[in-house]
Amino acid sequence: MTVTAGIGYALIALGPSLSLFVSVISKKPFLILTVLSSTLLWLISLIVLSGVWRAFLPLKTTAWWPYAILIITSIGFQEGLRFLFWKVYKRLEDILDAFADRVSKPRLFLTDKMQIALALIALAFVTIHTFSMVIAFNGYAEGNKVDQLFVPVVHMVAGMVTLINLASGGCVIGIPLLYFLAVLTLMHCGKMVWRRLTETQSRERSS
Predict the structure, then answer these.
(1) Any transmembrane segments, and where (predicted)?
(2) Angstrom distances, CA of residue 151 to CA of 34, 155, 175, 196
(3) Which of 85, 92, 86 has its CA nearest to residue 43?
(4) CA nearest neighbour of 133 among 180, 186, 194, 174
């Protein structure tokens, strides 16, 4: 009964807010960020207010006016933060609108192209290094020379491939080659993991 009552009370208090979140807010990432940031701001305001009022609490009086001052100052501070949050929100909204207008009519400058190329190269190397680490650790553990040599060879080849980018238009050739190495590393890692799983299952059946 206690659990049921607790759930009922929680739904009474939070049900409408939860319904609003699921039906409206959860479908829009920007609204989710707005809710999270406003919640954080509200918690910060409570922490600041509790720190300020800590010197005066508990109130050793039965009069009502000290509590009125506490409520008025707390609400005033939070409403001031709310207005500040709204100003920041409007500023951010204007920035995002301007960015959306620019994206609708994109203009790729040389720096934009370079950044895109660097991002693609970084993604390829992250993929190579992630799965190379798995391959290398397995090779060291099993004493598998093929796996131990595969990792430094692929790393060296990938590093040398980046030299192609120094040539004019070299990214058109260099980036696909990097992704070929990334796919090769992924396939080798997948083959190794499949072999380990098969061996483990075989040992479990035999035991």
Answers:
(1) 6-25, 30-52, 64-85, 116-137, 157-186
(2) 45, 6, 19, 18
(3) 85
(4) 186
Strand (E) or helix (H) holding 32: helix 29-53
CA 56 to CA 40: how far, in whole Å? Answer: 25
Q: Looking at residue 18, what is its pLDDT? A: 72
The pLDDT score that the predictor gives to residue 23 is 73
What would the pLDDT profile of 127-140 be if each residue is shown by its tens digit? 888 888 888 888 88
**How much is the pTM?**
0.49
Closest residue by Cα to residue 30 from 102, 95, 101, 105: 95
Alpha helices in 54-170 (DSSP H): 65-104, 110-142, 145-161
